[in-house]
Amino acid sequence: MARKKKPLLQNITIESIAAEGKALAHIDGTVLFVPQAIPGDVVDVQVTRIRRGYMEGYVTRLVTPSPHRIEPFCCHFGRCGGCKWQALPYPMQLQYKQQQVVDQLVRIGRLDLPEVSPILGSEKTVEYRNKLEYTFSSRRWIFADEESESLSDKELCGVGFHISGMFDKVLDITKCHLQREPTNALRLFVRDYALDHNLSFYDIRAQHGFTRTLIVRTTSTGELMVIVVFGKDAEDSADPDAAGKRSGLLDALSQRFPEINSLYYVINPKGNDTINDLDCILYKGEDAIYEQMEGLRFKIGPKSFYQTNSEQAYRLYSIVREYAREAISQMPEGHKPVIYDLYTGTGTIALFLSSLALKVVGIEYVPEAIEDAKLNAKINSIENSVFFAGDMKEILNAEFILQNGAPDIVVLDPPRAGIHPDVAQVLLEASPNDIIYVSCNPATQARDLAILSKRYRITAVQPIDMFPHTHHLENVVNLTKIKEECR
Ligand SMILES: C[S@@+](CC[C@H](N)C(=O)[O-])C[C@H]1O[C@@H](n2cnc3c(N)ncnc32)[C@H](O)[C@@H]1O
Protein backbone atom coordinates (compact mmCIF):
# COMPACT_ATOMS: atom_id res chain seq x y z
CA MET A 1 0.00 0.00 0.00
CA ALA A 2 1.40 3.42 -0.93
CA ARG A 3 2.32 5.52 2.07
CA LYS A 4 0.40 8.74 2.46
CA LYS A 5 2.67 11.66 1.63
CA LYS A 6 3.26 13.95 4.59
CA PRO A 7 2.37 17.62 4.14
CA LEU A 8 4.64 20.43 2.99
CA LEU A 9 3.99 23.37 5.33
CA GLN A 10 4.59 26.84 3.94
CA ASN A 11 5.56 30.15 5.50
CA ILE A 12 6.12 28.80 8.99
CA THR A 13 7.61 31.26 11.49
CA ILE A 14 10.13 29.70 13.84
CA GLU A 15 9.34 30.81 17.38
CA SER A 16 12.01 29.42 19.62
CA ILE A 17 14.57 26.68 20.27
CA ALA A 18 13.62 23.58 22.23
CA ALA A 19 15.59 20.85 24.00
CA GLU A 20 18.27 19.12 21.89
CA GLY A 21 18.68 22.38 19.97
CA LYS A 22 15.77 21.87 17.57
CA ALA A 23 13.90 24.90 16.24
CA LEU A 24 10.25 25.04 17.22
CA ALA A 25 6.99 26.41 15.79
CA HIS A 26 3.28 25.81 16.48
CA ILE A 27 0.83 24.70 13.78
CA ASP A 28 -2.79 24.80 14.96
CA GLY A 29 -1.72 23.91 18.50
CA THR A 30 0.66 21.12 17.39
CA VAL A 31 4.37 21.57 18.01
CA LEU A 32 6.65 21.33 14.97
CA PHE A 33 10.37 20.57 15.44
CA VAL A 34 12.91 21.24 12.69
CA PRO A 35 16.70 21.21 12.76
CA GLN A 36 18.80 24.08 11.34
CA ALA A 37 16.49 27.05 11.58
CA ILE A 38 16.62 29.91 14.05
CA PRO A 39 13.93 31.97 15.79
CA GLY A 40 12.50 34.57 13.44
CA ASP A 41 13.15 32.54 10.25
CA VAL A 42 10.14 32.02 7.98
CA VAL A 43 10.54 28.63 6.31
CA ASP A 44 8.81 25.95 4.25
CA VAL A 45 8.96 22.59 6.02
CA GLN A 46 8.51 19.08 4.68
CA VAL A 47 6.93 17.07 7.49
CA THR A 48 8.59 13.67 7.97
CA ARG A 49 6.91 12.40 11.12
CA ILE A 50 3.56 13.00 12.78
CA ARG A 51 3.01 11.91 16.36
CA ARG A 52 0.34 12.73 18.87
CA GLY A 53 1.04 16.32 19.96
CA TYR A 54 4.05 16.99 17.73
CA MET A 55 5.50 16.81 14.21
CA GLU A 56 9.03 16.71 12.84
CA GLY A 57 10.35 17.85 9.49
CA TYR A 58 13.15 19.54 7.59
CA VAL A 59 13.47 22.95 6.00
CA THR A 60 13.02 22.92 2.20
CA ARG A 61 13.21 26.70 1.74
CA LEU A 62 14.27 29.67 3.78
CA VAL A 63 11.51 32.11 2.79
CA THR A 64 12.59 35.07 4.93
CA PRO A 65 15.73 34.90 7.05
CA SER A 66 15.43 35.87 10.69
CA PRO A 67 16.67 39.41 11.45
CA HIS A 68 18.90 37.72 14.07
CA ARG A 69 20.74 35.58 11.51
CA ILE A 70 24.48 36.09 11.20
CA GLU A 71 26.87 34.77 8.57
CA PRO A 72 28.28 31.38 9.67
CA PHE A 73 32.05 31.60 10.02
CA CYS A 74 32.79 28.08 8.76
CA CYS A 75 32.73 27.03 5.11
CA HIS A 76 31.46 23.58 6.18
CA PHE A 77 28.38 24.95 7.96
CA GLY A 78 25.21 23.09 7.06
CA ARG A 79 26.96 19.81 6.13
CA CYS A 80 29.26 19.12 9.05
CA GLY A 81 27.64 17.55 12.13
CA GLY A 82 29.26 20.11 14.50
CA CYS A 83 28.73 23.82 15.31
CA LYS A 84 25.09 23.85 14.13
CA TRP A 85 24.21 27.11 15.89
CA GLN A 86 26.65 29.32 13.96
CA ALA A 87 23.87 31.38 12.38
CA LEU A 88 22.68 32.39 15.86
CA PRO A 89 24.62 35.23 17.58
CA TYR A 90 26.49 33.93 20.64
CA PRO A 91 24.48 35.99 23.20
CA MET A 92 21.30 34.38 21.78
CA GLN A 93 22.86 30.92 21.99
CA LEU A 94 23.48 31.59 25.67
CA GLN A 95 19.95 32.88 26.18
CA TYR A 96 18.46 29.65 24.73
CA LYS A 97 20.79 27.48 26.78
CA GLN A 98 19.75 29.32 29.93
CA GLN A 99 16.11 28.90 28.96
CA GLN A 100 16.66 25.18 28.35
CA VAL A 101 17.93 24.73 31.92
CA VAL A 102 14.97 26.56 33.45
CA ASP A 103 12.44 24.74 31.20
CA GLN A 104 13.82 21.29 31.98
CA LEU A 105 14.10 21.79 35.72
CA VAL A 106 10.63 23.27 35.99
CA ARG A 107 8.79 21.17 33.39
CA ILE A 108 10.36 17.75 33.99
CA GLY A 109 11.45 18.05 37.60
CA ARG A 110 8.63 20.38 38.76
CA LEU A 111 11.26 21.79 41.08
CA ASP A 112 11.24 24.87 43.25
CA LEU A 113 14.16 26.89 41.99
CA PRO A 114 16.08 29.81 43.41
CA GLU A 115 17.01 32.42 40.84
CA VAL A 116 19.07 30.66 38.18
CA SER A 117 22.44 32.44 37.81
CA PRO A 118 23.18 33.81 34.34
CA ILE A 119 24.98 31.21 32.22
CA LEU A 120 28.76 31.56 32.11
CA GLY A 121 29.65 31.96 28.45
CA SER A 122 32.93 30.74 27.01
CA GLU A 123 35.50 33.45 26.34
CA LYS A 124 36.73 31.40 23.42
CA THR A 125 33.95 30.67 20.96
CA VAL A 126 36.35 29.06 18.47
CA GLU A 127 39.44 26.91 19.08
CA TYR A 128 38.03 25.92 22.46
CA ARG A 129 38.45 22.14 22.15
CA ASN A 130 41.55 20.34 23.38
CA LYS A 131 40.76 17.10 21.55
CA LEU A 132 39.54 16.32 18.04
CA GLU A 133 39.23 13.04 16.20
CA TYR A 134 39.25 13.07 12.40
CA THR A 135 38.12 10.10 10.29
CA PHE A 136 39.70 8.91 7.04
CA SER A 137 37.30 7.71 4.39
CA SER A 138 37.76 6.21 0.92
CA ARG A 139 34.22 7.42 0.10
CA ARG A 140 33.89 10.95 1.28
CA TRP A 141 30.65 12.92 1.01
CA ILE A 142 30.07 14.00 -2.61
CA PHE A 143 28.33 17.32 -3.21
CA ALA A 144 25.46 17.73 -5.66
CA ASP A 145 27.61 19.87 -7.97
CA GLU A 146 30.34 17.19 -8.21
CA GLU A 147 30.10 14.46 -10.80
CA SER A 148 30.91 11.36 -8.79
CA GLU A 149 31.51 9.20 -11.90
CA SER A 150 34.33 11.45 -13.06
CA LEU A 151 36.15 11.40 -9.69
CA SER A 152 39.25 9.21 -9.33
CA ASP A 153 39.71 6.89 -6.34
CA LYS A 154 42.06 9.46 -4.82
CA GLU A 155 39.55 12.24 -5.33
CA LEU A 156 36.97 10.18 -3.49
CA CYS A 157 39.18 10.10 -0.37
CA GLY A 158 38.66 12.55 2.48
CA VAL A 159 39.50 13.23 6.13
CA GLY A 160 37.16 14.97 8.49
CA PHE A 161 33.93 14.48 10.41
CA HIS A 162 30.92 12.27 9.90
CA ILE A 163 27.93 13.85 8.21
CA SER A 164 25.20 14.16 10.84
CA GLY A 165 23.29 10.87 11.15
CA MET A 166 25.43 9.01 8.53
CA PHE A 167 28.00 6.63 9.98
CA ASP A 168 29.68 5.89 6.62
CA LYS A 169 29.81 9.39 5.15
CA VAL A 170 32.69 11.68 6.03
CA LEU A 171 32.94 15.32 5.08
CA ASP A 172 36.41 16.23 3.82
CA ILE A 173 37.37 19.19 6.00
CA THR A 174 39.61 21.95 4.71
CA LYS A 175 39.52 24.02 7.91
CA CYS A 176 37.99 23.28 11.30
CA HIS A 177 37.74 26.14 13.82
CA LEU A 178 37.30 23.99 16.91
CA GLN A 179 40.93 23.45 17.89
CA ARG A 180 44.01 25.64 17.72
CA GLU A 181 46.60 25.08 15.04
CA PRO A 182 48.40 22.96 14.03
CA THR A 183 45.24 20.82 14.04
CA ASN A 184 44.36 21.61 10.40
CA ALA A 185 47.95 21.54 9.21
CA LEU A 186 48.42 18.10 10.81
CA ARG A 187 45.28 16.65 9.26
CA LEU A 188 46.05 18.02 5.79
CA PHE A 189 49.66 16.83 6.01
CA VAL A 190 48.66 13.24 6.90
CA ARG A 191 45.98 13.29 4.22
CA ASP A 192 48.37 14.47 1.50
CA TYR A 193 51.14 12.12 2.64
CA ALA A 194 48.77 9.15 2.50
CA LEU A 195 47.57 10.14 -0.98
CA ASP A 196 51.12 10.72 -2.29
CA HIS A 197 52.33 7.37 -0.90
CA ASN A 198 49.30 5.32 -1.93
CA LEU A 199 48.31 4.47 1.64
CA SER A 200 44.67 3.48 1.42
CA PHE A 201 41.98 5.43 3.30
CA TYR A 202 39.56 3.52 5.50
CA ASP A 203 36.47 2.01 3.86
CA ILE A 204 33.97 2.31 6.69
CA ARG A 205 31.42 -0.10 5.20
CA ALA A 206 33.87 -2.82 4.14
CA GLN A 207 36.04 -2.14 7.23
CA HIS A 208 39.46 -2.11 5.68
CA GLY A 209 42.10 0.42 4.76
CA PHE A 210 45.46 1.67 6.03
CA THR A 211 44.77 5.11 7.56
CA ARG A 212 41.72 5.14 9.85
CA THR A 213 41.54 8.05 12.33
CA LEU A 214 43.74 10.88 13.57
CA ILE A 215 43.44 12.17 17.13
CA VAL A 216 44.92 15.53 18.09
CA ARG A 217 45.13 16.56 21.75
CA THR A 218 46.37 19.90 23.04
CA THR A 219 46.72 21.49 26.46
CA SER A 220 46.31 25.06 27.64
CA THR A 221 50.06 25.02 28.39
CA GLY A 222 50.76 24.51 24.67
CA GLU A 223 51.60 20.80 24.62
CA LEU A 224 50.59 18.59 21.71
CA MET A 225 49.83 14.87 21.38
CA VAL A 226 49.09 13.16 18.06
CA ILE A 227 47.71 9.62 17.73
CA VAL A 228 47.60 8.08 14.25
CA VAL A 229 45.18 5.15 14.14
CA PHE A 230 45.69 2.59 11.38
CA GLY A 231 43.24 -0.01 10.14
CA LYS A 232 43.89 -3.72 9.80
CA ASP A 233 45.61 -3.22 6.40
CA ALA A 234 48.47 -1.67 8.38
CA GLU A 235 49.09 -4.89 10.33
CA ASP A 236 52.33 -6.67 9.55
CA SER A 237 50.44 -9.87 8.77
CA ALA A 238 48.42 -8.06 6.07
CA ASP A 239 51.37 -6.40 4.35
CA PRO A 240 55.05 -7.36 4.79
CA ASP A 241 55.97 -3.70 4.30
CA ALA A 242 53.36 -2.36 6.72
CA ALA A 243 55.92 -1.41 9.41
CA GLY A 244 57.95 0.55 6.82
CA LYS A 245 54.85 2.40 5.59
CA ARG A 246 53.75 3.23 9.14
CA SER A 247 57.15 4.55 10.14
CA GLY A 248 57.45 6.45 6.85
CA LEU A 249 54.32 8.40 7.70
CA LEU A 250 55.16 8.86 11.38
CA ASP A 251 58.74 9.99 10.66
CA ALA A 252 57.54 12.49 8.05
CA LEU A 253 54.94 13.78 10.51
CA SER A 254 57.40 14.27 13.35
CA GLN A 255 59.92 15.95 11.04
CA ARG A 256 57.34 18.36 9.68
CA PHE A 257 55.91 19.08 13.17
CA PRO A 258 58.80 19.09 15.66
CA GLU A 259 56.42 20.71 18.19
CA ILE A 260 54.66 17.34 18.74
CA ASN A 261 55.45 16.38 22.35
CA SER A 262 53.98 12.90 22.16
CA LEU A 263 53.42 10.81 19.03
CA TYR A 264 51.55 7.53 19.26
CA TYR A 265 50.15 5.04 16.84
CA VAL A 266 47.46 2.41 17.25
CA ILE A 267 46.37 -0.47 15.02
CA ASN A 268 42.63 -0.87 15.18
CA PRO A 269 41.28 -3.98 13.45
CA LYS A 270 37.90 -3.75 15.25
CA GLY A 271 34.47 -2.73 14.04
CA ASN A 272 34.36 0.44 16.16
CA ASP A 273 36.68 3.43 16.45
CA THR A 274 37.36 3.49 20.20
CA ILE A 275 41.01 2.98 21.12
CA ASN A 276 40.36 2.46 24.83
CA ASP A 277 40.70 -1.32 24.56
CA LEU A 278 43.73 -1.24 22.23
CA ASP A 279 47.50 -0.91 22.67
CA CYS A 280 48.71 2.63 22.11
CA ILE A 281 52.32 2.47 20.97
CA LEU A 282 54.55 5.43 21.77
CA TYR A 283 56.47 6.24 18.58
CA LYS A 284 58.30 9.41 19.61
CA GLY A 285 58.50 11.87 22.50
CA GLU A 286 56.92 11.79 25.93
CA ASP A 287 54.33 9.19 26.97
CA ALA A 288 51.89 11.94 28.04
CA ILE A 289 51.11 15.64 27.95
CA TYR A 290 50.18 17.66 31.05
CA GLU A 291 47.28 20.02 31.68
CA GLN A 292 47.56 22.55 34.49
CA MET A 293 44.90 24.00 36.72
CA GLU A 294 45.98 26.44 39.42
CA GLY A 295 48.94 24.64 41.01
CA LEU A 296 47.77 21.16 39.91
CA ARG A 297 49.17 19.08 37.05
CA PHE A 298 47.04 16.45 35.31
CA LYS A 299 48.64 13.75 33.21
CA ILE A 300 46.92 13.10 29.90
CA GLY A 301 47.80 9.83 28.21
CA PRO A 302 46.37 8.74 24.83
CA LYS A 303 43.33 7.15 26.52
CA SER A 304 42.79 9.60 29.38
CA PHE A 305 39.51 11.46 29.69
CA TYR A 306 39.83 15.20 30.17
CA GLN A 307 37.07 17.81 29.83
CA THR A 308 37.30 19.03 26.22
CA ASN A 309 37.15 22.77 26.96
CA SER A 310 40.00 23.28 29.46
CA GLU A 311 39.27 26.94 30.28
CA GLN A 312 35.57 26.33 30.96
CA ALA A 313 36.42 23.14 32.89
CA TYR A 314 38.39 25.37 35.27
CA ARG A 315 35.39 27.68 35.71
CA LEU A 316 33.12 24.67 36.25
CA TYR A 317 35.40 23.24 38.93
CA SER A 318 35.68 26.70 40.52
CA ILE A 319 31.87 26.86 40.83
CA VAL A 320 31.87 23.40 42.44
CA ARG A 321 34.55 24.60 44.87
CA GLU A 322 32.61 27.79 45.64
CA TYR A 323 29.53 25.68 46.51
CA ALA A 324 31.67 23.31 48.59
CA ARG A 325 33.18 26.27 50.49
CA GLU A 326 29.71 27.65 51.16
CA ALA A 327 28.64 24.21 52.50
CA ILE A 328 31.74 24.04 54.73
CA SER A 329 31.01 27.51 56.09
CA GLN A 330 27.75 26.10 57.53
CA MET A 331 29.59 23.30 59.38
CA PRO A 332 31.01 23.61 62.93
CA GLU A 333 34.20 25.68 62.94
CA GLY A 334 37.31 23.70 62.07
CA HIS A 335 35.36 20.74 60.71
CA LYS A 336 37.13 19.21 57.73
CA PRO A 337 34.62 17.43 55.51
CA VAL A 338 34.73 14.06 53.81
CA ILE A 339 33.94 14.75 50.15
CA TYR A 340 32.81 12.09 47.68
CA ASP A 341 33.37 12.75 43.96
CA LEU A 342 31.09 10.29 42.18
CA TYR A 343 31.73 9.60 38.47
CA THR A 344 35.18 11.08 39.06
CA GLY A 345 36.77 10.27 35.65
CA THR A 346 40.49 10.84 36.19
CA GLY A 347 39.84 12.37 39.61
CA THR A 348 40.11 16.01 38.58
CA ILE A 349 37.25 17.39 40.70
CA ALA A 350 38.28 15.28 43.72
CA LEU A 351 41.86 16.52 43.52
CA PHE A 352 40.76 20.11 42.90
CA LEU A 353 38.74 19.98 46.15
CA SER A 354 41.23 17.96 48.17
CA SER A 355 42.73 20.93 50.03
CA LEU A 356 39.30 21.69 51.53
CA ALA A 357 38.74 18.14 52.76
CA LEU A 358 39.80 15.69 55.41
CA LYS A 359 39.53 13.10 52.68
CA VAL A 360 38.25 12.89 49.09
CA VAL A 361 36.79 9.64 47.77
CA GLY A 362 36.47 9.17 43.99
CA ILE A 363 34.47 6.45 42.25
CA GLU A 364 34.50 5.76 38.52
CA TYR A 365 33.56 2.96 36.14
CA VAL A 366 36.69 2.91 33.95
CA PRO A 367 39.66 1.24 35.71
CA GLU A 368 42.26 3.05 33.54
CA ALA A 369 40.75 6.41 34.53
CA ILE A 370 41.10 5.42 38.20
CA GLU A 371 44.75 4.51 37.59
CA ASP A 372 45.20 8.02 36.11
CA ALA A 373 43.41 9.54 39.12
CA LYS A 374 45.81 7.77 41.53
CA LEU A 375 48.76 8.87 39.44
CA ASN A 376 47.49 12.47 39.37
CA ALA A 377 47.20 12.37 43.17
CA LYS A 378 50.81 11.17 43.36
CA ILE A 379 52.15 13.76 40.88
CA ASN A 380 50.52 16.48 42.97
CA SER A 381 51.57 14.96 46.34
CA ILE A 382 47.93 14.73 47.43
CA GLU A 383 47.71 12.19 50.23
CA ASN A 384 44.11 12.53 51.39
CA SER A 385 42.51 10.95 48.30
CA VAL A 386 41.31 7.41 47.60
CA PHE A 387 39.90 6.15 44.30
CA PHE A 388 37.83 3.09 43.44
CA ALA A 389 36.85 1.57 40.09
CA GLY A 390 33.43 0.02 39.61
CA ASP A 391 29.81 0.49 38.65
CA MET A 392 28.34 3.16 40.91
CA LYS A 393 25.19 1.25 41.77
CA GLU A 394 27.28 -1.77 42.83
CA ILE A 395 30.07 -0.04 44.66
CA LEU A 396 28.27 2.77 46.50
CA ASN A 397 26.40 1.12 49.37
CA ALA A 398 26.08 1.33 53.16
CA GLU A 399 29.13 -0.88 53.70
CA PHE A 400 31.29 1.28 51.39
CA ILE A 401 30.19 4.37 53.31
CA LEU A 402 30.97 2.71 56.64
CA GLN A 403 34.46 1.84 55.44
CA ASN A 404 35.28 5.16 53.79
CA GLY A 405 33.53 7.58 56.12
CA ALA A 406 30.11 9.21 55.74
CA PRO A 407 30.28 12.05 53.22
CA ASP A 408 29.61 15.62 54.32
CA ILE A 409 29.51 16.74 50.70
CA VAL A 410 28.87 14.66 47.57
CA VAL A 411 29.75 15.86 44.07
CA LEU A 412 27.93 14.06 41.25
CA ASP A 413 29.06 14.35 37.61
CA PRO A 414 27.33 11.43 35.84
CA PRO A 415 27.11 10.73 32.09
CA ARG A 416 24.10 12.01 30.08
CA ALA A 417 21.87 9.22 31.39
CA GLY A 418 22.09 10.66 34.91
CA ILE A 419 22.19 8.56 38.09
CA HIS A 420 20.61 5.17 38.75
CA PRO A 421 17.63 5.28 41.18
CA ASP A 422 19.57 2.97 43.55
CA VAL A 423 22.36 5.56 43.69
CA ALA A 424 19.84 8.29 44.53
CA GLN A 425 18.45 6.07 47.31
CA VAL A 426 21.90 5.45 48.82
CA LEU A 427 22.55 9.19 48.75
CA LEU A 428 19.28 9.92 50.55
CA GLU A 429 20.24 7.40 53.22
CA ALA A 430 23.84 8.64 53.50
CA SER A 431 22.36 12.09 54.00
CA PRO A 432 25.33 14.41 53.24
CA ASN A 433 24.82 18.08 54.13
CA ASP A 434 25.17 19.14 50.51
CA ILE A 435 25.06 17.51 47.10
CA ILE A 436 26.63 19.35 44.17
CA TYR A 437 25.21 17.93 40.97
CA VAL A 438 27.09 18.68 37.71
CA SER A 439 25.25 17.57 34.59
CA CYS A 440 25.58 17.75 30.81
CA ASN A 441 21.90 16.87 30.44
CA PRO A 442 19.40 19.03 32.34
CA ALA A 443 16.55 16.62 31.45
CA THR A 444 17.99 13.65 33.38
CA GLN A 445 19.33 16.03 36.01
CA ALA A 446 15.77 17.32 36.55
CA ARG A 447 14.48 13.76 36.98
CA ASP A 448 17.21 12.95 39.54
CA LEU A 449 16.77 16.23 41.41
CA ALA A 450 13.07 15.47 41.78
CA ILE A 451 14.00 12.29 43.70
CA LEU A 452 16.64 14.02 45.83
CA SER A 453 14.35 16.94 46.60
CA LYS A 454 12.47 14.71 49.07
CA ARG A 455 15.19 15.66 51.57
CA TYR A 456 17.04 18.48 49.84
CA ARG A 457 16.24 21.93 48.58
CA ILE A 458 17.94 23.54 45.63
CA THR A 459 19.99 26.49 46.80
CA ALA A 460 21.90 27.43 43.64
CA VAL A 461 21.82 26.77 39.90
CA GLN A 462 24.67 27.76 37.60
CA PRO A 463 24.64 26.84 33.89
CA ILE A 464 27.99 26.94 32.04
CA ASP A 465 28.63 26.87 28.32
CA MET A 466 31.40 24.47 27.43
CA PHE A 467 30.46 24.03 23.77
CA PRO A 468 29.74 27.26 21.80
CA HIS A 469 27.72 26.85 18.55
CA THR A 470 26.13 23.62 19.79
CA HIS A 471 23.08 23.14 22.01
CA HIS A 472 25.17 21.37 24.65
CA LEU A 473 25.83 22.85 28.09
CA GLU A 474 26.75 21.95 31.66
CA ASN A 475 24.63 22.78 34.66
CA VAL A 476 25.71 22.85 38.30
CA VAL A 477 23.06 22.59 41.01
CA ASN A 478 23.67 22.83 44.74
CA LEU A 479 21.34 20.89 47.03
CA THR A 480 21.26 21.51 50.77
CA LYS A 481 19.71 19.09 53.24
CA ILE A 482 16.37 20.26 54.64
CA LYS A 483 16.60 20.45 58.42
CA GLU A 484 14.47 17.80 60.25
CA GLU A 485 12.20 20.41 61.87
CA CYS A 486 11.49 22.01 58.47
CA ARG A 487 10.33 18.81 56.76
C1 LIG B 1 30.82 13.44 32.76
S1 LIG B 1 32.11 12.31 33.07
C2 LIG B 1 32.76 12.95 34.56
C3 LIG B 1 34.14 13.40 34.42
C4 LIG B 1 34.85 14.04 35.57
N1 LIG B 1 34.03 14.47 36.67
C5 LIG B 1 35.66 15.21 35.03
O1 LIG B 1 35.31 16.36 35.29
O2 LIG B 1 36.64 14.97 34.30
C6 LIG B 1 31.18 10.93 33.67
C7 LIG B 1 32.02 9.77 34.13
O3 LIG B 1 31.15 8.76 34.65
C8 LIG B 1 31.71 7.49 34.37
N2 LIG B 1 30.61 6.50 34.49
C9 LIG B 1 29.63 6.25 33.59
N3 LIG B 1 28.80 5.31 34.06
C10 LIG B 1 29.24 4.97 35.29
C11 LIG B 1 28.80 4.03 36.26
N4 LIG B 1 27.71 3.29 36.05
N5 LIG B 1 29.50 3.92 37.40
C12 LIG B 1 30.61 4.69 37.60
N6 LIG B 1 31.06 5.59 36.72
C13 LIG B 1 30.40 5.73 35.57
C14 LIG B 1 32.27 7.68 32.98
O4 LIG B 1 33.25 6.71 32.71
C15 LIG B 1 32.82 9.10 33.04
O5 LIG B 1 34.19 9.11 33.40
What does this protein structure show overall?
This protein is of the alpha/beta class. It has three domains: 69 residues, Nucleic acid-binding proteins (OB fold (Dihydrolipoamide Acetyltransferase, E2P), Beta Barrel); 214 residues, Vaccinia Virus protein VP39 (Rossmann fold, 3-Layer(aba) Sandwich), CATH 3.40.50.150; 160 residues, OB fold (Dihydrolipoamide Acetyltransferase, E2P) (Beta Barrel), CATH 2.40.50.1070. Helix content is 24%, strand content 27%. The protein is built from ten helices and 22 strands. It has a seven-stranded mixed sheet. Strands 18-17-16-19-20-22-21 form a seven-stranded mixed sheet, sandwiched between helices. Strands 1-5-6-4-3-2 form a six-stranded mixed sheet, with no helix packed on it. Helix 9 links the parallel strand 19 and strand 20. The protein is globular. The model has no long low-confidence stretch (mean pLDDT 94). The site of S-adenosylmethionine has 16 residues, from helix 5. S-adenosylmethionine (SAM) binds next to helix 5.
